[in-house]
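It is worth pausing here to work through a concrete case rather than discussing structure prediction in the abstract. The textbook approach is simple: state the sequence, then state the predicted structure, then interpret. We follow exactly that order.
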Amino acid sequence: MVERVSPPDPNDVAYTTELTVYESEFDYYIYFVMTTISTVGYQNPFSKVELKLLIIALIIVALLVIPAKSSQLVTLLSSKSMYARRRYKLVQETPHIVITGTVSNIAAADFFQEFFHEDHGDQPRHAVILLPYRPDPHMENLIRIPSIASNVFYIQGDPLQEKDLKRCQVEKAKAVIILCNKQSGDASEEDAKTILRSMVIKKYLKLHNATNVVRLCMEILRPEGKTHYYLSLNRQTKADQVICVEELKLSLLAKSCLCPGLVALISNLITSSGEPKADLEIKWLEEYWKGKQFEIYKTALSSKFVGKSFSWVAAKIYKDFRAIIIAIEIESDESTRILPNPGDFIIPNSHRVTGYIIAEDKSVADQIGTYKNMDGDKSFNKSRTIGNRKSTPMPLASFYNEELTQNEEDDDEGATEITGKLKQVPFFL
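Step two, the predicted structure:
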């Protein structure tokens, strides 16, 4: 940088005196060199030696400290994970869920396989993982799978911190799922951590959520954990779902003693399956795989079923949709009741009634919820395409007696006739 100034007047007494003083002082030269090299600028020089030495010392400190600290800052920024700075942005008409707790690679893979399965429809959905550590290489490979990469968002943060919950948009989520460490050596400590996370999340939702109902689903290892959780709330929230792993295992084990094969049946009903990778030459294996393609779906029953008995509704749904309703859920302002196979129970009109349907995919369950034409949709008797696979109709005699579903010219009379015969068919729950 060159600065153009007018030349001094040799006859100026002040200039001559100042120049004489600078020429007689060595510190002047050091001050001049330091201010010039450091690009601070040489203007209005100080006359006191102490001030000059102070400025020189500050310049030296700045030249030594600032580059070192800048290097440390760059290193710190580069070491900070990109996941620690990420924020989830809501997409219109795309629901999202938040997964936190202890999420292993195997648990995440199984969850994503079920959550994004083609049987659950084509509606876009997002999954946000909130964990306090950055993902390992296996988790990064999992969330970068092309089929789910655009729908899975990993955020590094603490679920106990409000700012991290805000980054996940928990208050706008459809549900929050808290997974536990099933291999933990101390079940009580693991349950305490899960309950603490749930309490912090519920407190956050109470402060920031005014209209949206966020469902909280959590895993508990011991039955005592459920009691501790509900006692900590002082009330049971209908939107919460607490699953006790130990209780569920022991219940299935006890039921399997009375009904061998029940564990395999329940596992197949809660797990989505597609077409087999290879042709199955064994007939029973082919039938078994066809049964695996059915899952349990929860859907609101159509208003057309109000005032009808459960047996009539079950026969009607099976006849027209090739689906099986196994239970209904009646929700009121005071409580929620689940009635498995209630027989002659009349579907009420004063409460919200939800059915648990065994169907081949979600589209069938959704059409049951919007069922208006009492003549049924005959297209269900034909082959149809589900996602990337072709579905074949289930034989009429596969669940009910063939006698129950043949030659039903009138739907109402046919369903009534089926209902009467269904009372003689044993059904185990």
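Step three, interpretation. The chain has three domains: 13-79, 84-251, 280-422. The mean pLDDT is 77.
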